[in-house]
Amino acid sequence: MNNEPLANYLRPKKLDDVIGQEHLIGKDKIITNLVKNKKIFSMILYGPPGVGKTSIANAIVNELNLKHRFLNAVVNNKKDFEIVFEETKIYGNIVLVVDEIHRLNKDKQDLLLPLLENGLITLIGLTTSNPYHKINPAIRSRCQIFELLPLSKEDIKKGLKKTIKSLPDIKINDKAINLISIMSNGDFRFALNLLEVAYYASDKNINEEVIKRVNSKASNPMDEDETGHYDVLSAFQKSIRGSDVNAALHYLARLISSGDLDSIYRRMSVIAYEDIGLANPNMGVRVNACINACERIGLPEARIPLSQMIIDLCLSPKSNSAESAIDLALSDIEKGNIGKVPTHINAQAFGYKYPHDYPGSYVVQQYLPDELKNRVYYKPKNNKYERVLKTTLDNIEKLKSNESQ
After folding, report:
1. Residue ranges of domains in the chain
2. What are the backbone angles phi and psi of residue 343, rounded to the nearest 5°?
């Protein structure tokens, strides 16, 4: 063995050696087929730590014997990127693998975009963050986006058993392997690092007690099966929707313990608009402010603004009227209830009445297609803010009624 970490030393050189991600790799799966057909497009691989993002990128470039460079958006400076871009003038297309791509600054993006556009760079971006929230749309639109999922316990066990063959004279029982798979929480890199430390700290004889001495991290209840994480997220949102502060804080604590802050952020944003909605329309802004603060300060301090925000969400008035309204409108579209845009509000706007030319910036005219002209999607709930909206709606309806008489 050399001094390289086991996770790096054993990094897959071909897709067949990648652990898990069966929705992307395997017979008739998209990434496998791309490699099989020797055609790779720019892509972004995103998912939790240790699920195979770097392994897949490494397998792709090695299996196809592609000219490539690995850079990190934070560690490598603008000059490092410029060197790679200069190399494209000599070698032609280069596959550029960029770790932490969500942190690529504007200077580096400005260098990268033209080369992506003309095909001199094929980008493989790696990130633990949701690219739809964190990555520049100009880069995102030029890439295929693939989500990598947390590895199951069986995936981890399979990978560990394959790894054991590379460790001379190792003795390890099934209970120890199972414990590592539970403690790793879907992170194969964590599992390999734990195995490696246990191997050198135990005279190569590994059992459960050795694993516990090496890492005393208690197994999180969410680790026991791969659906557990989503069960906790579901319980988290339902507790807030049901205004149960203590339950919401309990599930928040479990999510914080798992280290998956991105899932907390996404779920809070959903709750602000799906469950709080128009009963407290400023909640979305406050949730975003909380997320920004948490990203700046990180854990453990981030637990404090998160707790404050969850208590506020729990005890806020609630309304799903906006969600119900758009779902009714989408239902009409799905059923083909569309109709023709009225002539006076189409692109030509012949006969259009400009509301700002009228008292109160309102004038009666038809906006919905004829087939839907009496359709009602938005139905205000009985809360303080929506009572004000309802008063405005009622006044508009009176004006319409007076106009039709």
Report:
1. 6-147, 153-223, 227-315, 331-404
2. -55, -40
Tens digits of residue pLDDT in 53-90:
999 999 999 999 999 999 999 889 989 999 999 999 88
> What is the full DSSP assignment across 145-213?
EEEPPPPPHHHHHHHHHHHHTTSTT-EE-HHHHHHHHHHTTT-HHHHHHHHHHHHHTTTTEE-HHHHHH
* Cα 126 to Cα 128: distance, rounded to the nearest angstrom: 7
Report the predicted TM-score, pTM, of the whole model to 2 decimal places. Answer: 0.57
**Residue 119: CB atoms within 10 Å:** 11
Rounded to whole angstroms, what are the CA distances from 322 to 2, 98, 237? 59, 39, 18
CB atoms within 10 A of CB 366: 11
ω before 168 within 30° of 0 (cis)? no
The answer as to CATH 3.30.460.10 being correct for domain 6-147 is no
Asked whether the beta carbons of 199 and 167 are under 8 A apart, the reply is yes
Nearest to 22 by CA among 210, 122, 148: 148
Architecture (CATH level 2) of domain 227-315: Up-down Bundle (1.20)
119-135: per-residue pLDDT in tens? 899 999 999 888 877 78
Between CA 185 and CA 153 the distance in angstroms is 8
Long-range contacts of 198-204 (CB under 8 A, 24+ apart): 199/167, 199/170, 204/167, 204/168, 204/169, 204/170, 204/171
